[in-house]
Amino acid sequence: MHLLRMHKLVTETKARVVVVDPITSYISLGATLEVKSMLTRLTNFFKAHQITAFFTSLTEGGSTLEQSEVGISSLMDTWIYCAP
After folding, report:
1. Distance from C-alpha of 7 to C-alpha of 19, rounded to nearest angstrom
2. Which of 19, 31, 32 minimizes the C-alpha distance to 67?
3. Digitized pLDDT (tens) for each residue of the chain, 84 residues in all
4. pTM, to two decimals
5. What is the C-alpha to C-alpha distance for residues 6 and 4, in angstroms, rounded to an integer?
6. CA atoms within 13 A on the CB side of 60
7. Residue 62 CA to chain centroid, in angstroms?
8. 56-to-12, 51, 79 alpha-carbon distances in Å
9. One-character DSSP codes across 7-69
């Protein structure tokens, strides 16, 4: 349902830039595989419509940050890590 709602809002507003903050909040909505699938489709939608998307991800201290918790970091054009 979240994916359809985001598609509708972006299409209705003709958004050129979208911020999804944080993607880790979707983990509580379903299984990790389902969340990864939804975020993959959302990313593909943004890319297909040439929409700039900015995703944030919350992480726990001391964890490896080379990928996102839901495993979509490889879909991103740029990955920025900000150390505390």
Report:
1. 13
2. 32
3. 888 999 999 999 999 999 988 888 888 788 888 888 988 999 999 999 999 999 888 766 655 554 455 677 778 888 777 766
4. 0.78
5. 5
6. 3
7. 22
8. 23, 16, 10
9. HHHHHHHT-SEEEE--GGGGGGGS-HHHHHHHHHHHHHHHHHTT-EEEE-----TTS--SS-T
- Rounded distance, CA 42 to CA 76, Å? 12
Q: Half-sphere exposure (CA, 13 Å, Cβ side) for 43?
A: 17
Q: Which two tokens stand for residue 31?
A: 């299984």
- Tell me how far apart the alpha carbons of residues 70 and 84 are, in angstroms, rounded to a whole number: 21
CA 2 to chain centre: 12
Distance CA 40, CA 47 (A): 11
Q: Domain-by-domain residue ranges, the chain?
A: 2-75
What are the structure tokens assigned to 21, written together?
């903050």
